[in-house]
Structure formats: C-alpha cells, structure tokens
Amino acid sequence: MEFIHDLFSKKVGPIRNDDLKNIWWKMDKIEALVRDTIANEQWVAKHYSHRPIKLGKKDLNELVVNGKIVKPIVAMDNAKKLVDMLDHAQNSNGEFDRFNKELRKAQEDIEKFYESQHPPKVEAVERYAEEVIKKIQVPGPKTNDHMKHVWGPRQKHYQHVATLHGSELPELSQAEVVQTGKAVLTALEDVKRYEKAAWRQTSNYGADWGEWKFFEDSDGYDAEDLRVGPIGDFFYYQGLPTDCAEEITMAAHDFKDAVVSSIAWTTLLCGGEKVFGDEVQ
After folding, report:
1. Angle at CA 162, nearest 5°, toward 251 and 54?
2. Can you give the pTM of this predicted structure?
3. N or C: which end of the chain has fewer CB within 10 A?
4. Average pLDDT per run of 10 along the chain, which is 281 residues long?
C-alpha cells in the first residue's frame, strides 16, 4: 500500500539552487516550494537528517547578529525589526509618498515652464527649477555624513562575518525546521509589502534625462550643465531619489538575504544541495 501511495503521490524534492536564483522574480514559485517542503511537517519528517553545517566566508551573512550566529527565525525577526524601525523613523507621516507626488509634479511644472518660453533659455529654466525644488521637503538621509552612519556598521558587520568562516551553525531540530519554514512564508509576505512601499518606489519617480524636454539639448539650448548639476541630481533616479531612501532599501535587501539564508540552511538539513557561493561543510 505504501508503494502504491508513493507511486501516485506527488513527489516533492528539496529546494534547489536554481529555485533560489532570482528569487524575487519568482515569488509565487518559491512560496509554493516552501509550503510543500520545509513548512510541511510530513515532508520534513520524511527528509530531515541532522548534520553539522559550517559557515563559509560569504555565506549566511544575515544570520550573524551582534557578532553571533543566530537561528534563522531570530535572524529574520532582527532584520525585519530594522526595516520597520527605519520605515517608522523616516516615513511615519508618509514622507516618501508625499515626496514621490511632489517630485512628479515639480517635473511637470518645469516642463510646462520650458514649453512656455520662446525660445527657452537654460538659465531661465534653471532658476525656475531652483525655486520649484526649494518647496519640496526631501525625506530620509541627505548628506554623506548620514550615509557613513549606515555604511560604517555594515562594513564592520561583514568584516566580522569573515572571521566566523568555518564556524558551526547552531543545531536545528526537525520541529525548528518546520517553524522556520512557516516563518519564511510570513517573511515572504513582508517582502511583497516592502516592494510596494513608497520608499521602495521613490527611485521609480526619479527621471531619466531623456524623459523630459527641459533636460534635452536643442538648437540654442545646451542642457548639459542642467543635467549634471544640482537640478539633474535632484531629479535623476540614480541621484537624490535613490539616495534619500538608501538606508531603508539597504535594510530591506538585508531582510531578503536573511530569508534566503533561512531557506538555504533548512534545505541543507533536508537533503538539499549546497545553495551558497562558498564552501560549506
């Protein structure tokens, strides 16, 4: 009877390296795989086999908290708290949503001014743009000193992680694998929510220079200084719009990495293949 059941039942193997590639473009597939494997008590009971796993130089970075290797659920919870803390600190009053709307309106107003000029002069457009952007309240970090506050601890963190190369990961019981799988499902829902957050979309509201005529060269209108100067940086999607949300989006990426690491760790305990870019025993 067991042979017949296995013959006709759905065969579900461990999550593979290929499954985790470009995970954020295959969210539904990953959710289904997690639900069928590491979050499924029956599946884990059949596949679980405890074995020691050691940390590689580049692997499982986001499973290190305050200099110690922690269990996956703790790592994901810690990473999520950081994102939520930054979100509250920088966006509790909807600053990014307001900024996105003001950014788009400012671009439209400058474009209308440009088109109203006969012929348009770069100097006049620049003066008008300066007056427009003075009224916009920019959220998030605005200075290099502020960004050093973010990058410094991150660099120190990764330097410390490198010293843990070869350290053995804490033991995970069969029940903890299932708990982690269920926590991953919740975390993936959080990732979807973060992807739609106003601070995540801010760079999308920045402009490519070719999007607006006032940034383009034409006869008698040389917009080079406008593009590469403070006005261009204020509107260009790789300039201020991205910089002002950098702290939160970096934390969101770390949260994603913690989720991936959690999937990878529990997968290894259930007969899965190595899914990291460094040697892991």
Report:
1. 100
2. 0.84
3. N
4. 50 78 80 95 93 68 81 94 90 93 96 96 97 92 56 61 74 96 97 93 85 93 94 93 90 90 90 58 38
